[in-house]
Specification:
Length: about 190
């Protein structure tokens, strides 16, 4: 979280807290936006689809994993009021592509920067300073960029399929993959 707004109006007994999130990364993101490439690059690669990032490889957009977003609001809500006065894995687009390719060797991510999108990204996104959240309400993200990709792929159940394909040496249909996974874990499928 990069902006926490808190206001105490003792006359009215109001304790108002809010968090302004950066781009949220997670499986199934359908929201249109210039910075959603992070989720889409991971998910499309995991599905075996090529993906083109329309910004420069050195561009950095502040992001937060969806599980950290949930944790942040809970921690803020539970923080003592007296602690509050006033995130974050930030990989460049090129670093993100390299990390995805490390986990999904078949990923086809290329760059074809769109000058209009580059201009928007360069003006909109600044690096995040979450030191006050860390100091005031003990905020600490649970996921760095590599952990985001690992957990994202687990959420998509991709890691299991890739491991089994490597085990048998060829692509496997989903039903076969599930049966093989059960056998590999020692849990033969029940007929």
């Amino acid at each position: 979280p990069y902006l926490v707004f808190q206001k105490n109006l003792p006359f009215y007994g109001l304790d108002f807290r809010s968090v302004r999130y950066p781009v949220i990364v997670g499986p199934g993101v359908k929201t249109p936006g210039v910075a959603q490439y992070t989720s889409w690059a991971i998910e499309d690669s995991a599905k075996g689809n090529p993906f083109t990032i329309r910004i420069k490889p050195e561009t950095r957009c502040p992001v937060m994993y969806f599980k950290d977003a949930a944790l942040a609001i809970v921690k803020l809500a539970n923080a003592p009021f007296s602690n509050i006065n006033g995130v974050t894995p930030v990989a460049s687009a090129g670093e993100l592509a390299a990390m995805v390719k490390e986990k999904v060797p078949t990923a086809q991510i290329r760059f074809d920067p769109d000058p209009d999108l580059v201009n928007v990204i360069d003006k909109l996104f600044l690096l995040i300073d979450d030191r006050f959240a860390r100091e005031e309400w003990d905020w600490k993200p649970q996921y760095d960029q590599k952990q985001i990709i690992d957990d994202f792929l687990r959420e998509m159940d991709f890691t299991r399929t890739v491991t089994l394909e490597a085990l048998v040496g060829f692509p496997t249909p989903k039903l076969i993959t599930q049966d093989l996974h059960s056998q590999v874990e020692g849990n033969a499928p029940v007929n």
